[in-house]
Specification:
This protein is an alpha+beta fold and 596 residues long. It has three domains: 142 residues, 3-Layer(aba) Sandwich (Creatine Amidinohydrolase, Chain A, domain 1); 139 residues, 3-Layer(aba) Sandwich (Creatine Amidinohydrolase, Chain A, domain 1); 287 residues, Creatine Amidinohydrolase (Alpha-Beta Complex), CATH 3.90.230.10. The protein has 19 helices and 28 strands. The strands form eight sheets. Strands 4-3-2-1-5-6 form a six-stranded mixed sheet, sandwiched between helices.
Amino acid sequence: MSDYKDRLTALRAELKSRNLDGFVVPLTDEHMSEYVGAYAGRLAFMTGFTGSAGNGVVLQDKAAVFIDGRYTIQAAAELDPALFEHHLFNKYPLLKWTTDNLPKGARLGYDPELATVGWEKDALKACARKGVELVAVDSNPVDAVWADQPEAPLAPAVPHDSKYAGVDARDKRAKVAETLREEGADAAVVTMLDSVAWAFNIRGKDVMNTPVTHAFAILNADESATLFINEAKVTSELKQHLGNSVQVEPREAFYETLAKFGAEGKAVLVDPATNNAKVFKTLRDAGAKLVEGADPCILPKAIKNSTEQQGARDCHIRDGAAVSEFLHWLSNEAPKGTVDELTAVAKLWECRESHGGLKDKSFDTISGAGPNAALPHYRVSKKTNRPLKMDEIYLVDSGGQYLDGTTDITRTVIVGTPTAEMKDRFTRVLKGHIALSTVRFPEGTPGMALDAMARRPLWAIGCDYDHGTGHGVGSFLAVHEGPQRIAKYSSDIWLEPGMILSNEPGYYKEGEYGIRIENLILVKKVDEPTEREIFEFENLTWAPIDRNLIEPSLLDDVELKWLNDYHAKVFELVSPHVDDATREWLQVQTAPIMVM
C-alpha cells in the first residue's frame, strides 16, 4: 500500500469484515501518552498527519482529522483534501462530526486501550442520541492492515540514580501507599509511562525524546508493588535496583492481574484521566471496587525535590551555554545565506553535545524560518526545509534531556533588519513574558489565573496566540508534564513550590513570521515575610533575547530593569562555559539597553 488512499481502502474492507461502519483513530497509546512509540503511530500511518495532538475517524464513505488551532496550517499541508476533512476539535468535535455522518443503526468501533473512560462515556451518550452503536474492539483494525508496523521497542529499563532522583523509590512508594490508605484503596493502577518511571526511579528509551520504558504498574497500600514489563527489558542490574518489595511480571499479565483483584474484592484507585477504558472495564467486570481519583504519582512527581530543583538549575546553565554558542554561530553564518532550517538543527545539537550530560533531545526541534515560524509546532523535513533569508525572522524551539533535568527554550531572532511591526509584536510578547516572570501570587492560585497577564500586551492591539502560555516540565522525564499548566482553559490544580513550568507567550502571522520567547520557571516561596503564603517564579533558562527585535520605547522602567538584570545574569552564569569568541559576542548581546 503506497499511499493513503490504499490504506483507507484496506481499513474500510477490514471494518466491513467486522461489521463496523466506522472507526476512531486517536493519536495515543495504551498509556494515554502524548508522544508515542513508532508502533503506536496509527494516525500518522492512516492519514499522513504528523502533529503531536489530533484524532481521526474513518467511515465507509469519508474520513476526518480533528486538531487544535496550532495545527491548522500543518493539517492543510499534510492531509489530502480528497481523502480527509480536517476540523478544529472545539468548533466541530469528533463525536458530533461522526454521529452527524453515520446513519441510525450504524456501528462505530473504538479501541478501549486507546481511550479514557471519560471519552467512552461521552461517546456512548453522543452515539445513543443518534441511534449509533458504540463497539469496543478486541484488536485494533489499523494494526491488521499495517503490514510493516514497527515492533514495540525492547530497550533495557535502567535505574535512575538517587543522586539525580533525590529520593529513593521505596520512599516514594511509601508516600503513595499512605495516600492509598487515606483513600481507602488497597492498590492503585499506574499506567502513565512517566509516572511508572518516577515511582520506580527507572528510565528507558522506548519513546523518542522521552526517557521512559513501556510498563504498567500496581502500587499497593502495604508499600509493595508489581511492575509489568517485557522480560527482555529486565537486567540483573534492574532487579537489584527494584529490590524485594517489587514483583516483576510479564507485561501480558497486567490485565489478568487486574481481573484477579475483582475476585479478591479489592478496592482499586483508578484515574479516569490517565487509565485507559480497558483498565476500568477489566476491574469493573471482575467485581473490583473502583475508587476514582488522580494518579497518585502525578502531583508528587510535579513537585520537584531539592535535588531535582538544583539539577534543573545546573543543566540549564550548560544548556544556556550551548544555545548561546549556537546563536553566536547563527549571527555569523545566517547573513551569508549558507544556513537552512536543517543545518541549524544539526548545529544546535552539536553545541548541546559538547557541554556534557546530554542523553537526548526533549522533543523534535522546531526550526522555522520566515513563514514556517508562523507554525507553532512546525516540524522541519527535507521537503519543507527552508533557507534563512535576510530580513526574515527565525524561530527555534528546542530542548535537551540531561541526567539532572529537562530543558525547553525558544528564541526568536532576526536575520538582517526587522520591520517596525516585527519589533512591535516581539516587544509585546516580551512584555507578556516579563509580566509572568515577575508576578507574585497567593497559595491556592491555579495557572489559569495567571494566563491573561502574558496575553494582555497583545490583547491591547487585538492580537493573541492559539496555544497555552505554560506547561509543566519533568526532571529527566516528559517535557510536557501535568497536572500544572498556564492556559486560558486550565485545570484547578494549584501552583505549588517545586513545580517547573514554561513561560512561552507568542505571536504568529500566517504566511509571514512567528515569534515566541520561552524560558522555564520554578515556583518558589517569596523570601520575605508576608501576611499570606505568597509564591513567585525563579527563572531557570539563561540565554540572550535578541535585542535587535526589541523596541525599547514600549518597555516601562520595571520591564527594562528586568531585561537588563536578566541579561546580566545570563552573562554571569553562561560566559564561563563558552568559547572566547562566544564570550565576546555574549558581552555585547547582554549589555544594558538604554532608552533615549
